[in-house]
Amino acid sequence: MKIIIINGPNLNLLGKREPEVYGNETFESYFEKLQIQFPTITLDYFQSNIEGEIISKIQETSFAYDGIVLNAGAYTHTSIGIGDAVKAVTTPVIEVHISNTFSRESFRHQSYISPNAKGVIIGFGLQSYELALKSFV
User: Fold this and answer.
1) Which residues are catalytic?
2) What is the pLDDT of residues 16-68, one digit of tens each?
3) Distance between CA 112 and CA 82 in Å, rounded?
4) Which of 4, 46, 60, 117 is geometrically suited to a Cys-Cys bond with 95, CB 3.0 to 4.6 A?
């Protein structure tokens, strides 16, 4: 099984940015733990702060992977283009969020990805990614 994790804007700052919301661990460190925890899955990782690069990566990888774990960050709430990319591909996409977006500002309650995702996992910290991977196996 081959799965890619795609992270959006500002997630490259995990471990530094708002640790009270996002924790103290970098995503790279956490990704290494996921690779050890899921040795039977080929895991790849991509992060971009640029909306078009995320759309291109979804399109590029979707037909070559068994699943996509997508945390589009703030683009979740603003990008019709990312939502359309998820809708356009046949590879199942699990939308994840580290924080509980419904306990935050009201603009974070809208997702353009959710209607086209296989499922949504919100609010379990970095463990949200682990839960998404478990849903594929």
Assistant:
1) 22, 97
2) 877 777 778 899 999 999 999 999 999 999 999 999 999 999 999 988 999 99
3) 8
4) 117
Residue 77 is labelled as binding a ligand: yes
SS (H, E, C) 45-90: EEECCCHHHHHHHHHHHHCCCCEEEEECHHHHHCCHHHHHHHHHCC
- Hey, where are the domains in the chain? 2-136
10 is in an annotated binding site: no
Task: Please tell me the CATH superfamily of domain 2-136, with its number.
Answer: Dehydroquinase, class II (3.40.50.9100)
Whether the pLDDT of residue 102 is over 80: the answer is: no
Full-model pTM: 0.93
108 in a known ligand binding site: yes
